[in-house]
Amino acid sequence: MLRPSAMTRLATPVDVERYGEYRITPETSFRGRITENGPFTARPFRYHVYGGWFCPWSQQVAITRELAGLHDLVTMSYVDDDRDGRGWAFRETYGPDPVNGFTLLRQAYEATVDGYTGHVAVPMLWDRLTTQVVSNEAGGIGVDLTTRFRHLADDPVDTYPPGSRDRIDELNGWLRPAVNEGAGAAARGSEAARAALLDAFERLDARLAHSRFLIGDVLTEADIRLWVTLVRYDVGPNAHRTINPGLHVYPRLWRYARALYRISAFHDTTNFAAFTRPGAEVPDWTL
Questions:
Q1: Which portions of the chain are predicted below pLDDT 70?
Q2: Range of the domain at 185
Q3: Residue 37: how many CB atoms within 10 A of its CB?
């Protein structure tokens, strides 16, 4: 157990003049998986997720964690919204690191790899038992949370059901480049990305004319992965309406997005303040 002082340690304020701007270096991917017989097995209270309220991939994991009934079994905490050259840190806004007492998230990576110099990424799954990073790949973390802990959780929602996995993966193969990554590229002025994004919105709007969710009436990882971009779209990439007039011009897609927001796992993991650009007006997400 950590000493009480370790539970109250906080990083010093962001200081770009002293530490410089953060630069994303080639990412060292940690892709450990929770399996039945491997080094990482599903046990209650063994794992912790480090996330960022600003980060769509962190929210993807957070939503899945809530739907899987793991709020208490797999804990989660959040780094500060701002960073300098040291990377993400724990500050007063969201409190200290409750697991290791680290002040900088980099310390978790350094505890796993001596002399770590790679990207300090969230979300990240940490193993309390072996004191190391398991994974910083959101898709794998989400799938493991929804599939590997079902015997431990009460009334979990399976967002990666066996009969739909091929379709979920197929959708992700299309939506990630066109929407999740395409929204940012369109905001940076790529006309090709803008065309692909708006075409995707048109196709999604048509698809949702015939179903409640992306795959029939079953809420899946595909919906979660799409939604975390939709909720940020009009206050982030499209904050100044440089891509299109807004998500509302696709009535079925907009209705679908707001319906998901009514689900507590989506609503409770959304912090508009963490990702809304200055001066942007948050649309009415209530129905």
A1: 1-7, 27
A2: 162-275
A3: 5
